[in-house]
Specification:
Helix 2 packs antiparallel against helix 8 and helix 4 packs antiparallel against helix 8. The relative contact order is 0.16. Strand 1 and strand 2 form a beta hairpin. By secondary structure, the protein is mainly α. A two-stranded antiparallel ribbon has the order 1-2. It contains nine helices and two strands. The chain has one domain. It is elongated and about 95 Å long.
Length: 204
């Protein structure tokens, strides 16, 4: 049997989610994965996104780290002619965890030494700078440089989906149109005769 209209309306009301201020939620979701959903009191999603996205990002940092060349060497900002770090465009969507790369790049550009043992600092282009070079990083990390880069990029791109979910909310499937049960219909009603069936003629 078909559900009454009141029951269907109740289900529609239960599916509504208070997104609070979607713009603030989206900004917080970019700043720290899961924070926007926490702001919206969607705690299960907040924990899920924080653990999965941040876990993927920090695992990529771990793969791109070494005690000899420094930590987090797969996330850095560089627009130099011979070292355009395009993967950072995806990594930047992780929000605050990528901020150290911007700070280190600004220091190097202004002629100041990087902080925290070159953590997320752009590598030197040559030995004249007296720091770890791009060749040193590739030689030391090998394939783990590419793996760490991919993991951190994936984390940033996954957070794009989380940001959109915080802004627009979850997507619910459209309810299917109610189908009429032909077996339960009155054959007289189907014929358009309503409650006044035609009397049968008496046989001769």
């Amino acid at each position: 049997m078909n559900e009454p209209a009141s029951s269907y309306a109740t289900q529609e009301h239960d599916r509504e989610i208070d997104l609070r201020d979607p713009a603030i939620a989206a900004f917080l979701a970019w700043l720290i994965p899961g924070l926007g959903h926490y702001y919206q009191r969607r705690y299960a999603k907040a924990i899920l996104f924080a653990v999965c996205i941040l876990g993927t990002f920090f695992y990529g940092l771990y793969l791109g780290s070494d005690s000899e060349i420094g930590w987090g060497r797969v996330v850095y900002v560089s627009w130099r002619t011979t070292d355009k770090r395009l993967p950072f465009l995806a990594q930047a969507f992780i929000g605050a965890p990528a901020f150290p790369a911007l700070i280190q790049a600004a220091r190097v550009k202004s002629g100041k030494p990087p902080l925290c043992d070159d953590f997320m600092a752009p590598p030197a282009l040559g030995r004249a700078e007296g720091r770890i070079t791009v060749d040193d990083i590739h030689r030391r990390l090998g394939r783990y440089f590419e793996l760490g880069t991919v993991y951190t990029m994936i984390a940033g791109l996954l957070n794009v989906l989380a940001i959109w979910d915080a802004y627009a909310g979850p997507v619910f499937p459209e309810p299917e149109e109610e189908k009429k049960d032909e077996e339960e219909k009155d054959p007289n009603e189907e014929a358009g005769e309503g409650d006044n069936p035609k009397p049968q003629e008496a046989s001769a």
